[in-house]
Amino acid sequence: MLFGWEVNWSYVLILPLAAGTLLAVMFLQWWERRLLGWLQDRRGPNRVGWFGVLQGVADGIKFLTKDDWVPPFGDRVFFVAAPVIVCASMLFVLAVIPFAPSFHIVDVNIALLWFLAMSSLAVYGVLLGGFASNNKYALLGSLRAAAQMVTYEVFMGLSIMGVVIHAGSFSLVEIVGAQEQLWFIVPQFLGFVIFLIAGLAESHRLPFDLPEAEHELAAGFHTEYSGMKFAFLMCGEYVAVIATCCFIVLLFFGGWLVPDFLGFLEPLVGEQFAGLFWFGLKVLFFIHFFVLLRAAIPRPRYDQLMSLGWKILLPLTLVNLLVTGFLVAWARWGL
Amino acid sequence: MNADLVLFWVPAAIAVFSTALVITRKNASRALVYLVISLLAVAVVFFVLGAPFAAALEVVVYAGAIVVLFLFVVMMLNLGRSSVLREGGWLRPNMWVLPGILAFVLLIVMFHVFAGTQAKTAGTEVPPSAVGRALFGPYLLAVELAGFLLLAALVGAYHLGRRYLEERRAVVEGTGEGVDAGGDGGR
């Protein structure tokens, strides 16, 4: 017991959760490539296993058997540490995600800040990885990544404060609980849009993958990476996507809660499994949305990305925060 | 010795040790990474002492934003072997005498201050809402003053940036478009 927070059997979940997420990443990258193939009128990976399902396994074997090269002109320690930092900090985020009413590792009252803290630590992996490669493309890529992630972190944090004002807590379980009547997507639509954009930029996915834009920077900060280290960097990116989608669902789409007419599942399989099912379904929906965005929207220029952040999204976020605070105070105490 | 004390002393020792390394490392990027470790250790100390909100902000603000900017600058300057050698020249043993004496005096004062007080470790947890109430209640003036300071910094930064923009505009207008098109690769 530490300050009365629940420390119980849920710690057993840590290993299966981490392993399950990494497995999910393996299939996710296959599924993403397959979807992109369809969307771009080509086939995508379809050779290994049924419809190419085992592509992830084949890639894993390839990663493990590839030459694990460390550039002799770079910084060895940072080069090895960077993929670990990226992947580990993103896996740490999973610790606070409640997948169902009591299916979580810990429920701390700073869960939301924990997410922001861990995603800001992931910057170090990208930064040190590019720096340690001692290569112009990698350095430029990681400078871009650092500026982009620090910028978008600012209003990623601010955009979810509207949710905190409504729920009155940083605890994710309580935030979901506060959405019993109405999902926060309705009162916080602006906050949702900004969080989505910031989440895209934070996990540097297309269309915001300027740090690794291959038409101008080779592969950006991971140009020098190969083998399992490269796999870890990619893994970190996919875990970031999963975590961001989980947070979108938890903060704006009611987590495991569903409207009454979908309540038929709960008596059949029990509260926990029904919650897990609905939560998973919503998260999958947003993961697909991320993939569709990747296929549909071209990259902006880097200066466009930064000025969008500072000149449009930041003022919008502040206005959203101000209006939300005013309305909630008005509803609670009157004028 | 119970678990809470171990949870306090281990990160506290890591914080002190890595801070010492921050000062003695000659390579600026290594020093900054040790600084991050030190900040994370201090965050754990805050957490164990019952201030999870302060711990989270320590990581988000200091480790996640400020030191990133430091590291950013170090990377931009691309400090190589020459700066490591120069640092080595600065970190001679006789440089440690005066700072050592001053730090020792501070240490004595600190011991003197803390000797009389009752040790207060874990037990009560400070929730985020209590921090907010304290900031906008008794410490409102401090919050407003910090706001002034930040605004002044913002205006100052804008002023410096505007001078740079004006200088650049003057250069572009002065040399005409022909040079611009040629030098810029026909952008």
Report on this structure:
- The complex is a heterodimer of chains A (335) and B (187).
- Chain A has 335 residues and is mainly α.
- Helix content of chain A is 66%, strand content 0%.
- In chain A, α5 runs parallel beside α13 and α10 (227-252) packs across α12.
- The mean pLDDT of chain A is 83.
- With 187 residues, chain B is mainly alpha-helical.
- Chain B has two domains: 1-121, Up-down Bundle (Four Helix Bundle (Hemerythrin (Met), subunit A)), CATH 1.20.120; 130-176.
- Helices cover 80% and strands 0% of the residues of chain B.
- Chain B has helices at residues 3-24, 28-48, 52-77, 81-90, 97-115, 128-135, 140-183.
- The chains are: A mainly alpha (335), B mainly alpha (187).
- The A-B interface holds A 2-4, 75, 78, 108-110, 113-114, 116-117, 120-121, 123-124, 127-128, 130-131, 139, 142-143, 146-147, 150, 153, 157, 168, 170 and B 4, 7, 29, 33, 36, 50, 52-53, 55-57, 59-60, 63-65, 68-69, 71-72, 75-76, 78, 122, 125, 127-129.
